[in-house]
Amino acid sequence: MEILFIGHVAKDINKTPNKTVVVPGGGVFYGSIAAQRIGANCRVVTKCAIQDRFLYDEMLKIGTQVSFLESETTTAIENFYPTENPDDRISRVLSLANRFQKEDIKDLSCEKIVLSALWHGEFVEELIPVLRDKAKILIGDAQGFLRNVVDDGQLRYQDWPQKNRYLKLFDVFKVDNNEAYILTGERDLKKACEQIHSMGVKIVLATHKDGVCAYDGVKFYEAKFLPYKLEGRTGRGDTCLATFTTVLDDLKMAVQLAADVTSKKMQYPGPYKG
Questions:
Q1: What is the pLDDT of residue 151?
Q2: Are 2 and 211 contacting, i.e. CB atoms less than 8 angstroms apart?
Q3: Pairing state of beta strands 19-25 and 10-16?
Q4: pTM beyond cutoff 0.85
């Protein structure tokens, strides 16, 4: 099974009231490592500055094929978690890598493609239909379409104006509690998932502080997270989505596997160790 991840890698400065750690991050980093370590054959197409590529050696060490595209800068993000609720996060951008362009993806193809952008605009929306034609299964993360960089460097979540045009192109689309609310205006997570499905997504994957659920238009599949540590929160959704993606032919198994692997990953900062 081969999975292609597309998106920026990042320098993450993760802060809690008691600790600050600097780690490599981004959905392609956490996701590809988790999927590779449970048996998938992963490829990554990403952008960062040449001098920062060493931060992502772990992807290469475990066998992931990584294509670093040219960028003078690396996306660097500070994440502050002020409370014990892992969904309560304040983020601001310190620098941004170059956006993805059509020439960056023209030669790509894979059965499963995961579009895992860090910010809205990193991946130009007009390229989504291009990827749709290159993948049997197209997978997306809401973060890359709802998280906007504003003038003061803060990352603020806003509704996606083009959602009705592009959501229907995704086979799997991942949200957390907050993202589901922003997309739909519905506080009840399951009702929000139903609304997102009605926009054309085949499978909606949702994470919340207690666990994960998936909705295929007929049934909800659910599993709980084991107790975890707040400092392991960064990369939760990325790990969950990537792990879920490996077994899409059995949603009950996929949800349970995603919850189990993500629970283990959240015991420590950094990616899933296996």
A1: 79
A2: no
A3: antiparallel
A4: yes
